[in-house]
Amino acid sequence: MIRLTEIKLPLDHPPAAIKKAAAARLRIPADQLLSCNVFRRAHDARKKTSIALVYSLDVEVKDEAAVLKRFRKDTDVGPSPDMTYRPVARAPDNLPARPLVIGAGPCGLFAALVLAQMGFRPIILERGKVVRERTKDTWGLWRRSVLDPESNVQYGEGGAGTFSDGKLYSQVKDPRHLGRKVLTEFVKADAPPEILTEAHPHIGTFRLVKMVENMRNTIEELGGEYRFKSRVADFDIETTGDGVRRIRGVVLADGQRIAASHVVLAIGHSSRDTFQVLADRGVYVEAKPFSIGFRVEHPQSLIDAARFGAHAGHPALGAADYKLVHHASNGRDVYSFCMCPGGTVVAATSEPDRVVTNGMSQYSRAERNANAGIVVGITPRDYPGGPLAGVEFQRRWESAAFIAGGGTYAAPGQRVGDFLAGVTSTSLGSVIPSYKPGVTPTDLSSCLPDYAIAAIREALVVFGRRIRGFDMADAVLTGVETRTSSPIRIARDDTFQSLNTRGLFPAGEGAGYAGGILSAGIDGIKVAEAVAKSIVTD
After folding, report:
1. What is the sign, positive or negative, of the torsion defined by CA atoms of 263, 269, 274, 277?
2. Torsion of CA 67, 72, 75, 76, to 10 degrees
3. DSSP states of 121-143 as a string?
4. What percent of the chain has pLDDT over 70?
5. Most CB atoms within 10 A, among 266, 277, 284, 531?
6. CA angle, 302 as apex, 297 and 305 as ends, to 5°?
7. pLDDT band per the 50, 70, 90 thresholds, residue 297
8. DSSP string for residues in 290-352
9. Residue 239 class from Cβ within 10 Å (0-12 exposed, 13-18 middle, 19+ buried)?
10. Calpha distance 138→409 (Å, rounded)
11. Which candidate, 107, 166, 123, places its Cα nearest to that of 511?
12. What is the average per-residue pLDDT within 137-163?
């Protein structure tokens, strides 16, 4: 097979044009092109008047060797890579102990799946509930302002990614094509097949629910075991005679002890109580940078028109997204985060009396508003005080948002025009905020540090010059966005084990090694492989 990249065609090209373009690119007659399949499809909207579709193609041709030789200096023509996933180990018949996977989010899910596929029959410990029950609890906060601290947007089967846009793209280096393994397993679990070919694939919240269920069934069929409502309250760590710290098991909140010599720590970026326990038990934890800010909402039609012009609404393009970055005059970087076209802003707190926002959308991306986090990068210099100081920093502003919103889990909100002018919003305008249980018009300047407020104000004006209407007066800011990534890193070595605790494998977003569903899934696969190798060589 030959991989062709950068094949550009007009937006409304006929299907036959793809094969014709491939033959023309290779300078061969059409009858020498034996097959032509789309590997990836993207669009180039840099010129709104001439938007193009951009393809990567896998083709079969007669005399492949001769064609490749002719194009050996062409970076857009080469052999199709082998993306087949091959297990790195197989569980022994006399498996001494089953590995534990803590957390059933994207990272834990793929760690458990790959371990199960290799025959290691993992035990998955999830503090929350099965995804259907968790969905009911989450709606309880959104509709009735009732928070279940153990079952919400952050905790429960599927992890935080379940209530999101379901974006499945990442900029992580992936030389082994593990991302393809993630996408393939998702399609097996009833994800739309086009995620294999779209450059920026997404699934949407409610489709994710069914997929998570299907993947659980697969893991259980392979010998894995799920235990829900099983919060890990402590870690049994032993220092051996040679001075080496080793994990010996975990203790659940109900007092049950589970022995284990290999534990995957896929706890997510919001497991603050577990972070504390790990630090108390001497596991090496360090503070890391993350970002804070607000959610901004615009009419999706405004974003479509700004990005696609007269082609707005074209079925091949869908709802438009954006990616914006600004380096503010006070030295802070401001950027758009987790942009959700045609989506909603959701209540994402996991702790009582705090307000946290996030974005999600359905597969259709058909809601009235576009939303994105507009966030400011911060570093441990902004929150000195030890490895968990970032957690307390997050809590401070989440509590401030709760108070500013009225103390009912309503979120504080402000018209962009009022925010830029530094005046309190007393009402909202034409853009109706989507956040449930509701938005209280107020002054958001009390909900973030002064340097963040100043940087966001400056950035919004700049963004308005890049996307016409971005700084429209009636656009709505909703606070606060604090869970952009983990505030800590549970550092690991080149065997994927904790720097100072053997048998403990920090993984995914909570450990500081991923950001989003795809990268978390990839990291889960890598960690599962490391666990398998460790078991078979111990």
Report:
1. positive
2. 0
3. --EEEESS--HHHHHHHHHHHHH
4. 100
5. 266
6. 145
7. very high
8. EEEEEEEEEEHHHHHHHHHGGGTT-TTT-S-----EEE-TTS-EEEEEEEETT-EEEE---ST
9. exposed
10. 13
11. 107
12. 95
Beta bridge partners, 336, equal: 374
What is d(CA 411, CA 477) in angstroms, rounded to the nearest whole number?
A: 10
From-to residues of CATH 3.50.50.60 in the chain: 100-286+488-537
Specify the pLDDT at position 403.
98
Give the Å distances, CA to CA, from 208 to 190, 212, 261, 276.
9, 6, 32, 30
Burial class (CB in 10 A: 0-12, 13-18, 19+), 102: buried
Place of tokens 């899910």: 109
Alpha carbon distance 330, 361 (integer Å): 33
- Residue 408 CA to residue 353 CA, distance in Å, equals 8
Report the top-level CATH class of 2-79: alpha beta
**CATH 3.30.70.2700 residue window(s) in the chain:** 2-79
Q: What are the beta bridge partners of residue 236? A: 249
Which DSSP state fits 196?
A: G
pLDDT surpassing 90 at residue 166: no
pLDDT, one tens digit per residue, over 451-503 is 999 999 999 999 999 999 999 999 999 999 999 999 999 999 999 999 999 99
Q: Which two tokens mark 528? A: 């599962």
Nearest residue to 56 via CA among 69, 70, 75, 31: 75
pLDDT, one tens digit per residue, over 55-101 is: 999 999 999 999 999 999 999 999 999 999 999 999 999 998 899 99
- Report the C-alpha gap between 378 and 335 in whole angstroms: 12
Residue 380 phi/psi, 5-degree rounding, is -55, -20
The pTM score is: 0.96
User: Per-residue pLDDT for 342 more than 90?
Assistant: yes
For strands 2-10 and 52-61, give the pairing.
antiparallel
* CB-CB contact of 31 with 22 (8 Å): no
Instruction: Count CB atoms within 10 A of the CB of residue 293.
Output: 30
pLDDT score, position 368? 97
CA distance 488 to 383: 12
Structure tokens at 259: 């022995």
| Mean pLDDT value across residues 350-378 | 96
3-state secondary structure of 522: helix
287 with 487: CB under 8 angstroms? yes
Secondary structure (3-state) at 170 = coil
Taking only the tens place, the pLDDT of each residue in 248-289 is 999 999 999 999 999 999 999 999 999 999 999 999 999 999
Question: Is the four-CA dihedral 241, 245, 248, 251 of positive or negative sign?
Answer: positive
- For residue 515, the surrounding DSSP H or E stretch is none
Give the other-Cβ count within 10 Å of 60's Cβ.
Answer: 14
